[in-house]
Amino acid sequence: MTLALLPGFAEAFMLAFARIGTMIMLLPGLGERAIPARMRLAVAVLLTLLLQPGLGRPEVAPLAGLLSEMAIGAVLGLSARLVLAAAETAGSFAAQGVGLSFAQVVDPTQGQQGDALAAFFRMTGVLIVFATDLHHLAIAGIAGSYQALPPGAPVHIADGLTAFLSTLARAFAAAVMLAAPFLVFGLVFNLGTGLLGRLAPQIQVFFLAVPLSVALGVLLLGRHLPSLWESLHAFVSATLTQILPLP
Q: Is pLDDT above 80 for 118?
């Protein structure tokens, strides 16, 4: 490489890094706050160095190209992140159903306070991503995105928003499906305790219902955990395959 080639190489590298870096910062598993920013940056730079030689030098204005590449990376990365957000939403629904919404902990993957079950579901979702090599699927989606949306190609904002909203609806439906046993349990249990309070007003229903609801909810959680993780893995794998343009 001569010095005359450096400006062109730097421009092509920055265009590729704009998309890859944005996706790495948002992808599930790789983009968690628990992973140091320097490590995420190193992964993004390494992937850019590996993929950029096969991309060539796009004929596009630098500023417009950077904005376009960052927009593509943001849409793909956020769509993939919504897949893992289904686990956290399911945990919040489950906590509401079994009466554990008052149990607040700090989620280490996000660095913020939330429901204990929501944090547990999210951490398990991240563990499933790495344990089953689904992060390899996400990396393959980065490479495949250049075949579906090559640098310099026109970006259709309406199509991106449609795909994003479709992924959001699919993630919410999956969260409701995963938390369905706990939602049904909460509905039946609350109806039963409400009826008991009407039939026997002298009984302190609240002091009896809360510990019983938590105990039965924990038993229900232990009973359904294996099927929950199988369903979550199947949903994450299938949805990432659909939304990420694999090569």
A: yes
